[in-house]
Amino acid sequence: MPANITQVLNALNEGDATAAAQLLPLVYDQLRLFAAQRMAHEPAGQTIQATALVHEAYLRLVDRAEERRWTDRRHFFRAAAEAMRCILIDRARARHALKRGGDQLRIDVDLDLLPASGMEDDLEGLSDALERLDREEPDAAELVKLRYFAGLTMTDAAQAMDISPRTADRLWAYARAWLLTALRDQ
């Protein structure tokens, strides 16, 4: 199956118009799992379901296929995790816009709970801090995206990043401390 995904991604990169239709059945189950894991941490009453999140992320990825060249399945799934993150951030920003009650009190978040619930209260602040972390330590930021927004386990995230689990543990500890400091300083 991974070889098939890479072959379809290569065809998509080469401009094959039918490749996008072939790709979805190959990646759908994994994307649905990522989305379900992420949505489990969202507050009750969300207007987006995991299936809709997968479809919106997939459409964003395929619509921008000419801008992106995915080298392999890991690269594609990283891009999918980023697309899901962006969708959830956009929705959080819309919820917190002034016309939607954005003047409500901001709540500090305990990053020791990552990836547990509670982070949704300051998703915008987390996104801003994560963008700053990405500029300083891209590997640490990528690990947070894979763990928190794609719902990967530490082992799966380490494998996706092609790093050892010990390195992933160290990056995770660093990223949590960095983000906690950044969120407190906001």
Write the layout of secondary structure elements.
Elements (H helix, E strand, L loop, with lengths): L1 H12 L5 H21 L10 H14 L9 H24 L26 H14 L1 H12 L4 H8 L3 H20 L2
Task: Please provide a written account of the structure.
This protein has 186 residues and is mostly helical. It has two domains: 2-96, Rna Polymerase Sigma Factor, Chain: A (Orthogonal Bundle), CATH 1.10.1740; 105-184, Arc Repressor Mutant, subunit A (Orthogonal Bundle), CATH 1.10.10. The protein is 67% helix and 0% strand. It contains eight helices and no strands. The chain has helices spanning 2-13, 19-39, 50-63, 73-96, 123-136, 138-149, 154-161, 165-184. The longest helix has 24 residues, at 73-96. It is globular and about 50 Å long. It starts with a helix and ends with a helix. Residues 106-120 have low confidence and may be disordered.
Domain count, please report it. 2
- List segments where confidence is low: pLDDT < 50 over at least 5 consecutive residues: 106-120
What is the β-strand count? 0
- The amount of beta strand, in percent, is under 5%
Specify Rg, calculated over alpha carbons. Answer: 17 Å
Number of helices: 8
**Do you know the CATH topology of the largest domain?**
Rna Polymerase Sigma Factor, Chain: A
What composes the largest sheet?
Answer: none
CATH first level of the largest domain:
Mainly Alpha
CATH level-two architecture of the largest domain: Orthogonal Bundle
Helix amount, in percent? 55-70%
What is the chain-wise order of helices and strands?
A: HHHHHHHH
Average the pLDDT over all residues and give the rounded result: 78
**What spatial form do the alpha-carbon principal axes imply?**
globular
By secondary-structure content and strand pairing, the structural class works out as: mainly alpha
Distance between the termini: 45 Å
